[in-house]
Every structure is written in structure tokens, then in C-alpha cells.
Amino acid sequence: FDGNELRVWKYRCLLPVKREPVSLKEGGTPLYHATKLAEELGCKVYVKHEGANPSGSFKDRGMTVGVTKAIELGRNAVACASTGNTSASMAMYAAKAGLKAYVLLPAGKVALGKVAQALMHGAKVIGIRGNFDEALALVRKISEEEGFYLLNSVNPFRLEGQKTIAYEIVDEIGTPDRVVLPVGNAGNISAIYKGFKELKELGLIDSIPKMSGVQAEGANPIYKAVMECREDIDPVLKPETVATAIRIGQPVNAKKALRAIYESNGTAVQVSDEEIIRAQKDLAAKEGIGVEPASAASVAGLRKLVAEGVVERDETVVCITTGHLLKDPEAVIRACGQPIEVDASLEAIRAVL
Ligand code: F0G
């Protein structure tokens, strides 16, 4: 395997699989210095754009490891519940590996681009009349019954792949003071923390960044637990947010995520749908970084942490933008409106310039 590329499998010696990876060249995503945001916020802001992965989200890092593990274990079918991105990524890697793929989605609540990916890559896609938390409970049961290899973030190999986000950040800029990211099922914050922790245990870094999780106001169980200094969550029974990727009320990795936040002296913050859309527009129009709403929550959260005085002025902060703008075109049209339509004449065009 090409070990010289700055991608997930560069860190193969720290990944628990033996066979040749099922890879679509995931990872090695760009880390942008967000100069305009830095100017606004008074700290050094980087954006790690996970939307640049092959399926357009960070899930590919987990899936390359998870699907490789499925093959290593001799399994022939994989399954997941998803708010969209996990299913798109799983379907893609299952296609590459020649595995059957089964997906449960909350019907009508998944962004169009993600459903399109899962369908085109050949997964069996089933919409349930219920939310993500219900879909996850169901897919866990069905997978056990049918012998499907479950690829939600309850699968530890998924998190092993996703921890490489931490390795790449350190490889490129050393240890930042803080990492800010959206939290849904709470796997990614746990995975990235694990990555930093391992680097510290190996003596490669001296400190661990403050892990700071951002949730939408309508889907905020981790935020509430942190505000009350609790080790576990109270589920949100009817989660709702424009950021459908993180429309989750009962995150399965809640305990791990809370540990990551407490042990790293991090925090959690909640943001409104309006703040999320404003951050999405600013990232796109001021920094040239196109992300889906859930990803923009990281920047909306950072803004809030700066306003609350939690982030200090000279901090180096990395915001993780987890998914690509094109994942959710309908949210974009709702935020920006339709393009202007005019007659096919120069006068008509000049009139609207
Ligand atoms: N951002 C995006 C774009 C996501 O798709 C997700 C999770 C998250 C953030 C939150 O990550 O769950 O590890 O805390 N999406 C899952 C899915 C739930 O099914 O695609 P997390």
C-alpha cells in the first residue's frame, strides 16, 4: 500500500487491522487557515474540511477501517442506521468491497444528497416512520438476527479510523489549544480525543486540546449534561434541527464523549438553527469553504464560546467541518433562495446585475 500519502492508512501501524485495506483514498483532508474568521474572533482559527473525503464526510475514515474489518472477519453484509452520511459512506465502501449493504433512515428527515449516494452505491435503503434513535435501536436488533455486520459508531473500528483526524492535525500544525466539532451520536468527538490521547501516551505530543462539542438547541443532550456536570445524559425524545445530520436525542457514545470533554478540560455549547445557517453562509461566502448545516455548527459554536469568554484571545482553534455543502442542497436553497431567472437577452441580464 502507498504509505507515503498523507491519508488514513499512513497511520496503519496504529490501526487494528491486518489485511490489505478497502480504501478509496480517504483522509488527507485540507486544513485551512480561516483568516477572516480569525480576524472576527481574535484567535487563530483553522478549519479541517472533512467534506473533502471521497463520499463528502468524515465517515469515510471510519468506514475504510470498519469495512476492512468486516472482510477480515469473513462477513458478507453490513448495516447501519443513519441521519445520512454514515449510510452514504457505508454504501460506497460496501460497493468497493463487494458486500451487501442495508440502511435504516428516518423517513423524510435525511438530506437528499446523502439518500442519493446510498441508493446509487447499491444499498437497500429503508425509511422508517421514526427518528434516528429509533432506527438505531431497530438496526441493532435486525443485525443481530440477520447476521449483518453493524457499522454504526457502536462499532469500535469505526472510531479507530476517525481518530486519524487528530493525527493529521498534529502532523500539520502540532497540537492546537482546542478542537471544536458538531456532536450527534457522539462518536467523532470520542474518536478524535482517543487519537490525541494516544499521541500523548506515545510521547509525541505534550498536551491534549480542549475537546469542545457543539449541539443544536433542539437536539442537545450532551450540552445539558455538561452544564450539569453529569456523567450521563437525559435523552431528548423529539430532537429537531435544520442540521439533520445531528438530529439525535440519545447519543450512543454519550459516556465516552462526556469523558473526552471532562478529561481534556473542554466544554459543550448549543447553537440555534439561525446561528448554524449564518455560520454556513459565512464559511461559504467569506472563506470559500462549502459545508452542510451540521458542520457549520462548529463555527457557530466557536463564535458563541468566544462571545462567552470561554475561548481565550490567543488560542489556536481547529473547527472540524464534517460534511460537504452538496450533501444538503435543499437547505441551501431555503437559505439562499432560487437563482434569478430572466429572458435570454443582454438587456434583461444588465437589468439585474
Ligand atoms: N456532522 C455530520 C455531517 C454528521 O453526519 C454527523 C453524524 C455528525 C456531524 C456528528 O458526528 O455522530 O460522531 O457525533 N452523522 C451520523 C450519520 C449520525 O448517520 O451520518 P457523531
Question: How do you describe this structure in short?
Answer:
With 353 residues, the chain is α/β, with parallel strands linked by helices. The chain has 14 helices and 10 strands.
Q: How would you portray this structure in words?
A:
The protein has 14 helices and 10 strands. It has helices spanning 35-41, 59-72, 85-97, 112-120, 132-146, 156-162, 164-173, 187-201, 221-227, 254-263, 273-287, 293-307, 329-336, 346-352, and strands spanning 31-33, 44-49, 77-81, 100-106, 124-128, 149-150, 178-182, 210-216, 267-271, 316-321. β4 (100-106), α4 and β5 form a beta-alpha-beta unit. The model has no long low-confidence stretch (mean pLDDT 97). With 353 residues, the protein is of the alpha/beta class. The chain has 2 domains: 8-57 and 157-334, 3-Layer(aba) Sandwich (Rossmann fold), CATH 3.40.50.1100; 59-154, Rossmann fold (3-Layer(aba) Sandwich). It has a 6-stranded mixed beta sheet, sandwiched between helices. Strands 5-4-3-6 form a 4-stranded parallel beta sheet, sandwiched between helices. One of its GO terms (molecular function) is L-serine ammonia-lyase activity. It holds the Pfam family PALP. Keywords: Amino-acid biosynthesis, Lyase, Pyridoxal phosphate, Threonine biosynthesis. This is Threonine synthase.
